[in-house]
Design goal:
This protein is α+β, with helices and mostly antiparallel strands and 178 residues long. 34% of the residues lie in helices and 14% in strands.
């Protein structure tokens, strides 16, 4: 009979101990910070953080080293050679006209493993990390970032100029052989 009352006492004591522990945490200050509202109060991020990448297109030469070394194949680059007579060429970081135009520079962050090899192999330092680390999106297509500054009309114009230049060069080479 004594065991019966002892079990009842322990059955009532155990939840009371849990309530005591829980109530002690109610009055302690919160550790969790609200992300967008209190973002400035976060400590500084380490140098090795793996945040969102950005591409400085004035530095990019279109060498495709980043795309060739990407382990996840998430970087897609297309280039167009600049024609010698074209006066409307974008300038590089030194103010000189580019010889290779980057018509497409896409990074699919849904595939990216953030290994940062692309940043390391870029000879001009065009790829760099930003302080933005939030990638939340409802649609996977929103994680495909387009970095090229060329519009569709510019791309078509440059391709037509290149085709025209190649046709003229082929015609002059054919006439020189005769």
């Amino acid at each position: 009979m004594l065991q019966y009352f002892k079990n009842i006492f322990l059955g009532l004591l155990t939840p009371l101990q849990g309530i005591k522990i829980t109530s002690s945490y109610i009055f302690t200050p919160k550790v969790t910070k609200r992300y967008p509202e209190q973002f400035d109060t976060y400590p500084t991020l380490p140098e090795t953080e793996r945040n969102r990448l950005d591409v400085n297109m004035t530095k990019c030469t279109g060498c495709q080293m980043c795309a060739k070394n990407c382990l996840a194949n998430c970087i897609k680059i297309e280039t167009i050679k600049a024609t010698p007579g074209d006066t409307n060429l974008p300038l590089d970081e030194n103010g000189k006209p580019k010889k290779l135009l980057v018509s497409k520079f896409d990074i699919d962050f849904a595939l990216c493993s953030f290994c940062m090899i692309c940043e390391e192999v870029c000879p001009t330092g065009a790829i760099h990390r930003t302080k933005i680390f939030d990638y939340s999106s409802y649609n996977r297509k929103d994680l495909l970032y387009h970095f090229s500054a060329m519009s569709e009309s510019d791309i078509i114009e440059k391709k037509e100029l290149l085709e025209k230049f190649n046709a003229e060069k082929k015609a002059s080479d054919a006439s020189a052989e005769k």
